[in-house]
């Protein structure tokens, strides 16, 4: 959760870029972390649940028209994410990775794991993803997402 991540940054005195001491940068992290719950997390999780978990539980795929509507909802918030939060910056807060970037990419991996390559037609988003993975470490990133990326194979 966001609360535990903030607690960990304070308790372990993580490098400043994760949760900046600069109040303006910190406000940008907070703004994203508050926005993402009902937007990126809400819409991305809905697609994952509808495309992977619901069919697994019911034995029936969701009708294509319902999946289209859910995918369109996610596309709307992805556009907002690019325009409002990424803009023309390397990361959400600016030139350095923050908790906001980490939380954003983790949430975006749910729809990816459901088979929706949301990075494919969004070069700005794809470039941002590469920067976040590089900052975290590609191998660590892959290890952390191994379970969710294999969820559709259940």
Automatic annotation (TrEMBL):
Record GO biological process: glutathione metabolic process
Main location: cytoplasm
Catalytic EC class: transferase
E.C. number: 2.5.1.18
Keyword S-adenosyl-L-methionine: no
Keyword flag NAD: no
Compartments where located: Cytoplasm
One Gene Ontology CC term in the entry: cytoplasm
Catalytically driven reaction(s): RX + glutathione = an S-substituted glutathione + a halide anion + H(+)
Record's keyword terms, sorted: Cytoplasm, Transferase
Every GST C-terminal domain range: 22-154
A GO term for molecular function: glutathione transferase activity
UniProt record similarity statement: Belongs to the GST superfamily. Theta family.
The protein's name in its UniProt record: glutathione transferase
Organism encoding this protein: Chauna torquata
């Amino acid at each position: 959760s966001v609360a535990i991540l903030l607690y960990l940054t304070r308790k372990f005195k993580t490098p400043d870029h994760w949760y900046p001491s600069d109040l303006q940068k910190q406000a940008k992290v907070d703004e994203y972390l508050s926005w993402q719950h009902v937007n990126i997390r809400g819409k991305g999780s809905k697609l994952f649940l509808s495309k992977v978990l619901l069919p697994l539980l019911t034995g029936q795929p969701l009708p294509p028209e319902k999946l289209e509507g859910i995918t369109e909802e996610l596309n709307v918030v992805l556009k907002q994410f690019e325009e409002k939060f990424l803009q023309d910056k390397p990361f959400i807060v600016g030139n350095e990775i923050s908790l906001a970037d980490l939380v954003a990419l983790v949430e975006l991996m749910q729809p990816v794991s459901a088979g929706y390559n949301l990075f494919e037609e969004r070069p700005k988003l794809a470039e941002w993803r590469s920067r976040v993975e590089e900052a975290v470490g590609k191998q660590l990133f892959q290890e952390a997402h191994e379970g969710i990326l294999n969820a559709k194979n259940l």
